[in-house]
Specification:
With about 400 residues, this protein is mainly alpha-helical. About 85% of the residues lie in helices and about 0% in strands.
Length: about 400
């Protein structure tokens, strides 16, 4: 069944529509076949029963005309009318034979053909009796014709009438049976087509649910993943189960997740490096593609723009701490970095002025120190001379003291 899941969505939908169309076509085909069968059954009923009833009816009408014609022989007395009735009788015989011939062709069962043969036999038996009655009537011997009329001819006439009525009844009964069968067939066909239509509708509904499910379920999963991504959760992965558009979309989602995760990892790495003071750390923009690469490059350039002035400021502060006064900063900066540059340049200027003043004071101190040194040398020489004099005096005193001691002794 995986092959169906891997089909394109359009192919799935077209396949479903084709299946529904085939079911509809099957229902239509069966319905048309059933209608044709019912139509053929009714056509057969019309040809075999209804038409047959018409043929029987024509035989019955011709037979009744024959009976009326025979009656007229007893009603009319003129020779002219009797001859006319005789001529009419021949026409009725011809019509009756033609109707029997058509009726014989329409007979489809042995029972019907046997009933028709019985009818023919009775008519054949009746005809010579009628001819005798007509001859007696034309000859004016109606009284001699009456026994024939009321005897054997009447029995045959009743038998013929019964045979015709039986043909009516048999064909009507058969037509009713065919009609009942057609009604039953129609009911069965309607029932079958109803079941088939219900089955088709059920298949269409199930197929619709199935198609919508295999399309909507991956989309719902993608929507849930998109919500988690929007909330900042990168610990997601879309499971790819099919090779259709939803499968391709799932793969694209996984690529997005991978790209955003890589961007997040590099961003966290730069943040951690900045916290730890590793300001020279940069993300590798070549690991990213498209606008993601531009973002990483932009962050790197931003760090360069931020750390560059700070590095310059740090080097200047380091030189100043070591006693070196660096030259003024001539690079162009913007915003707060330009203010830092101006403050450093002001510091450098003040230190330079202070150093110049200190140098001037140092020179004065040096001059004064030289003068003091010369005076000290002069003072030193005078003191030396005075010390010599004192030493001479002391020596003289010691000599005098010694002499005094000696004189005293």
């Amino acid at each position: 069944m995986n092959w169906f899941y891997d089909l394109r969505i359009a192919t799935k939908l077209i396949s479903a529509f084709i299946l529904v169309a085939l079911i509809g076509g099957l229902i239509g085909y069966e319905g048309i076949g059933a209608v044709r069968s019912i139509d053929q059954s009714y056509t057969d009923m019309v040809q075999n029963n209804t038409k047959l009833l018409g043929d029987v009816g024509r035989v019955a009408v011709a037979y009744q005309q024959l009976r009326v014609n025979i009656r007229d022989f007893f009603v009319d007395d003129s020779a002219e009318k009797l001859l006319a009735h005789a001529a009419r009788k021949k026409e009725i015989d011809k019509l009756l034979n033609e109707s029997l011939g058509k009726l014989e062709k329409a007979m489809t069962t042995a029972e019907k053909r046997q009933d028709l043969n019985n009818l023919r036999e009775d008519l054949n038996k009746l005809d010579p009796l009628l001819e005798s009655i007509i001859r007696f009537a034309i000859e004016g011997k109606k009284q001699e014709a009456m026994p024939i009329m009321r005897g054997e001819a009447l029995k045959l006439a009743n038998s013929i009438q019964g045979a015709i009525e039986k043909l009516f009844e048999v064909n009507i009964s058969e037509a009713e049976k065919v009609a009942a069968q057609n009604n039953a067939s129609t009911s069965e066909t309607v029932k079958f087509l109803g079941i088939l239509a219900a089955f088709g509708v059920l298949i269409a509904i199930c197929l619709g649910f199935f198609i919508s499910r295999i399309i909507s379920r991956p989309l719902r999963n993608l929507a849930a993943v998109a919500d988690r991504l929007a909330a900042g959760d990168m610990n997601v992965l879309v499971e790819v189960k099919t090779k259709d558009e939803t499968g391709s979309l799932s793969q694209s989602f996984n690529k997005i997740i991978k790209a955003v995760s890589a961007l997040t990892i590099d961003a966290n790495m730069l943040v951690q490096a900045a916290i730890e003071g590793r300001l020279a750390t940069r993300a590798d923009a070549n690991k990213h593609e498209g606008d993601y690469r531009k973002i990483v490059e932009g962050v790197n350039n931003t760090l360069d723009a931020v750390i560059g002035p700070l590095s310059v400021a740090g080097k200047y502060v380091e030189q100043i701490s070591k006693g070196d006064i660096p030259p003024r900063i001539t690079d162009e900066y913007r915003g707060d970095f330009n203010e830092i540059k101006n403050n450093l340049n002001m510091l450098i200027e003040n230190l330079t002025n202070f150093a110049t003043e200190i140098q001037g004071s140092s020179d004065q101190v040096t001059t004064m120190s030289g003068m003091l040194s010369s005076s000290a040398e002069q003072l030193s020489q005078g003191a030396t001379e005075q010390a010599a004099s004192v030493e001479e005096v002391s020596s003289s005193v010691e000599e005098m003291s010694a002499n005094i001691h000696q004189s005293a002794g």
